[in-house]
Amino acid sequence: MNKAEFLNELSFCLQNMNNSEKNKFIIFYDEMLSDYVENGMTEEDAVDKIGDPKKIAEELLADYGSVKINLPFTGIRGLNYILTIIGFPLWGSVLLAFVLMVFSVYVIIWCVPFTTGALSIGFFTTSIIGIVGSPFVMLKNASMGIMQLGTGIASIGISLLLGLATLGLSKRLIIITKNLNAKLAALFKKKVIVG
Amino acid sequence: MKIKNIKRKCIILSLILILTGVLISIAGFGVAGFDYNRLKKEATHDPWYQTIHINSDTPWYGVKFGNNIHLMNIGNAD
Amino acid sequence: MDSQLKKGLLEFCVLAVLNKSDSYGYQIIKDISTCVEISESTLYPILKRLEASSYLETYSVEHNSRLRKYYKITNKGKDYIKEFLEEWQQVMEIYYFIKGERNYE
């Protein structure tokens, strides 16, 4: 492969990258190859030394964790901000979809302690009403009243267990949620530096 | 140690409560002569402070205020 | 060597080369290669990172009817190297301690 072929192949592999970044990269390698040749190597040997353009492109893309969205970034900071804001509909919708997805995951996992918590409260109030009301029921219907007392007492026990489960689950989930948040934050920081 | 103890105590307490409650309930059922039908006949009033209800042959546990406000409802597919 | 460690160390190698004098891609590779192996595809992201953190600046000079990009270390970069070397003094102490060659009474 000679220099032109190498650079063309490289450019082709990086076509999804935004142009200014890509050009800087290509120029770097163009220069490097020219220097090798100037110092005595043949183009073929220089290209061999540098390596396979496909692999190099892969490494570059991986290093930069490049998002497939082509955000036009110029060298001027102010212009970058304006362009980012104008381009909002594009990256904004992707970001929104991602945020909603994360949110729905949270909702799903927190459903469980929420359910046990709600049940615990439900059982508890029902048992209070049951125990307090049982003598009244006993007046009319002895057996029903006694059973109500019994179920009321049992319900307190159930509500206590559910309450413990809710607390335990919540504690664990808080840790998981914190971990997830940290990972997501790290993911975003990486992408922001890249941009 | 402190924390583990409280948790253990709570779990044991709740199990005791459940056991006691179940026993009393069985006793109550016994007063009715272990007769489900008799229980059903006598349980038609359904005041709000009654927690065990039997509606159209389906027993359910919970509290009912008025016609459609249920504080809790376990067992009734209504 | 652990690749992350190597990449980190190579950053300082690049700065050290630039500390001696401004240089360009090909020359940087040649100089560092006398000590440790470095490839062009490794050098590029390092240069990029160093520039992003303002440890080096770039300028272009015409050479044989083409433009050659030169890299120049900044004062911030010089301080960065100094910090690194000072910290590594400590590392060397610990190294010798582990190796057991120093006498600690």
Automatic annotation (TrEMBL), chain A:
Membrane-spanning intervals of the chain: 81-109, 121-139, 145-169
A Pfam family reported for this protein in Swiss-Prot or TrEMBL: HAAS
Name this protein carries in UniProt: Uncharacterized membrane protein
Keyword vocabulary terms for this entry: Membrane, Transmembrane, Transmembrane helix
Source organism per UniProt: Anaerocolumna aminovalerica
From TrEMBL, chain B:
Keywords: Membrane, Transmembrane, Transmembrane helix
Entry's transmembrane regions: 12-34
The keyword Transmembrane is assigned to this record: yes
Protein name as catalogued: Uncharacterized protein
Protein source organism: Anaerocolumna aminovalerica
From TrEMBL, chain C:
Coiled coil: none
Superkingdom per UniProt: Bacteria
Any Pfam family: PadR
All copies of domain Transcription regulator PadR N-terminal, residue ranges: 14-83
Protein name: Transcriptional regulator, PadR family
Taxonomic lineage from the root: Bacteria, Bacillati, Bacillota, Clostridia, Lachnospirales
